[in-house]
Amino acid sequence: MGFTFVLILPALVVVVAGVYYLYNEVIRLMSKSVVRNKVVVITDAVSGVGTECAKLFHKGGARLILCGKSWDKLESLSDDLSSASDPSVTFTPKLVLLDFSDMDSMPDVVTEVLECYGCVDVLICNSSLKIKAPVQTLSLEMDKTIMDTNYFGPITLAKGVLQSMISRRTGQFLLVNSIQGKLAVPFRTAYAASKHAVQAFFDCLRAEVEEYGISVSTISHTFITAQDSTPSPKTKKTLCSLFSRHGVYPAELAEEILRTVSRKKKEVLMAHPLPMAALYIRSFFPSLFFAVVAAGVKDAAIAEQLQ
Length: 307
Prior knowledge:
Helix content: 55-70%
Number of helices: 10
Low-confidence stretches: 25-31, 228-244, 301-307
Strand content: 5-15%
Number of strands: 7
Shape: globular
Order of helices and strands: HEHEHEHEHEHEHHEHH
Radius of gyration: 21 Å
Largest sheet: 7 strands, parallel
Distance between the termini: 62 Å
Mean pLDDT: 85
Structural class: alpha/beta
């Protein structure tokens, strides 16, 4: 009996792994078919995550509107996408200059986005401005800049295309947010505040537009991790560095964005065990969480003094 079990167990593991792999492949192919011919807007398309998203949605046959601050980079991305795809089954991306820190330009940007195809099926709000600094050294002007980029910019664009979605009674908003929209860590006062604000906006929007057939999705992820990133030995023990060691790769996040769009999932948390545990500790044991975070700040300050 024991010998038979030893033989069957590895085979069972292989079968389960094979089924899981096939399931993921089917879901991936179905996700691509769902976005075919859809008008998809991607903000900050030239960023790591934006570029990976553009690749996936372009291959899936979406009609892309790529937004970014640099025209040269947008053109380069568009050329790369076109050269790597079959023009008979894909659309040449349309490009729109967009800088969320320039709020005066937003009405023109909204008009230009809507004029590209006359409508928007999916708006992916991906832009984000990050800063790390002690609160006493951060100017109010910088606070405002971060709020414009991370909050006022995305909601202005969302409001700009909302009426078109309501009239068509279809559409989807997807906010690529940070887990700091739910869990704040030290030296990120302005950034965390902006992420909390934009999370709240889209949570409220979800309930308000459901009757019109419009869906709202949010993805809260940990730090974006470069493929070759390795934490410095001097910073391994700080709270933020521990979170960054448990980050997500741009391609991994882009795959989840495609799945979320195709399945219209309302909320996704992309976090490894450590930040996920911190999120639950913050909710159920706040005093413990605050004590650990405060201790981490003191340790970081001491380490900096010793350098």
